[in-house]
Design goal:
Elements (H helix, E strand, L loop, with lengths): L2 H14 L8 H15 L4 H10 L2 H10 L10 H17 L2 E8 L2 E8 L12
Antiparallel strand pairs: 1-2
Helix pairs in contact: 1-3, 2-4
Length: 124
Amino acid sequence: MSIETEKCIHFMNVRYGLDISMYQTSFLEKAINARMNALGRESTEDYLLFLSNVPAESFEIIAQLSNSYSEFFRNPLTFAYLEQIILPSLISQKIKIMKRKSGFGRRLALRVRKPIVLPFFSMK
């Protein structure tokens, strides 16, 4: 991690009480550089000076650090796991959905012969 990045982390922690050290270094540096470029700032020192004088910029850097997409839906391994492990497990455990009539009309009831046990998940 560069000294400039460490200074930004320290500044955000001291000034705003925000711990941004949890982000990956490359992601953090990319976000800081994006804000510096958007503002036309040449150096990190210049950006930190701007950040200290313009409190609204803290919201901009936090917005830059916010992840606006879900990794879950972009990960092919997630869908492979669902397709090859989770769904077959559910199907093999004989979940029956049956229609039942009641005084209020039809409704769906879920009836499970035995507890559903998914790999790596606990039902306790």
